[in-house]
Amino acid sequence: MIKSDREYRNFELMQQTEENKYIAEGYASTFEPYVLMQIDGEDFSERIEPHAFDDADMTDVVFLLDHTGRVYARTKNNTIKLDVDEHGLHTITDLSKTEAARSVAEDIFVGNYSQMSFAFAVAEDHFDIDTRTRVIDRIRKVYDISAVAFPANPNTEIGVSMRDYFNGEIEAMKEAERLQREAEELERKRAELIARANALGGN
Questions:
Q1: Where are the domains of the chain?
Q2: Is the pTM of this model over 0.90?
Q3: Neighbours of 158 (CB within 10 A)
């Protein structure tokens, strides 16, 4: 079951080789901005800050299929290694330890699972109005890395919370623009009154 307190993001399928297809390596996230969804024809993006993982709880991250069910690897037994570098959150997962894990690795290798995803919780973020970008400043916890048959889609349950987030920001922007227009109109009327008063005073 997808947990409502977690966010899910796609990332590129982990790299494997024929010689060692049970070791899957890749980046669960990068620090480059990416388009998260389109609303009314406008791109809305997200960016994870380079220091967002500094205080994140990554003590017990597990490897799953579609974010549910059986655990195939985990950080606590050193079958998942996580490292934050200048590019993002780098992951190395050893899927060689059990028959079930090896089966998952083979499914990934032949393309039965086309992409990867990771689940996390945000501690702090803000919205950049100019670029329509949600900036993640601090991540509270990383829960899992998953092989997924179908990537998270903004129109599915996984994407509902982010669509709500951006819709809220859109409403806030519209309200700010409305207040700005009202302030400009009041200033225009004030200037007109001052000009009239000055004209009457001159007479």
A1: 7-176
A2: no
A3: 21
Outline where the chain has alpha helix (H): 99-110, 157-202
Find tokens 């997924």 and name the residue: 148
Per-residue confidence of the chain (203 residues) as pLDDT tens digits? 455 678 888 887 677 777 788 988 888 888 999 888 887 888 889 999 999 999 999 999 999 998 999 999 999 999 999 999 999 999 999 999 999 999 999 998 888 887 888 999 999 999 998 898 999 999 999 999 998 887 765 444 445 466 677 777 777 777 777 788 888 888 888 888 888 878 777 65
CA distance 110 to 100: 16
Q: Mark out the alpha helices in 78-156 (DSSP H runs).
A: 99-110
By DSSP bridging, strand 115-128 and strand 68-74 are: unpaired
Q: What's the half-sphere exposure (Cβ side, CA atoms, 13 Å) at 18?
A: 0
DSSP 3-state of 102:
helix
Q: Which residues of 166-203 are buried (b: 16+ CB within 10 A; e: fewer)?
A: beebeeeeeeeeeeeeeeeeeeeeeeeeeeeeeeeeee
- C-alpha to C-alpha distance for 97 and 77, rounded to whole angstroms: 11
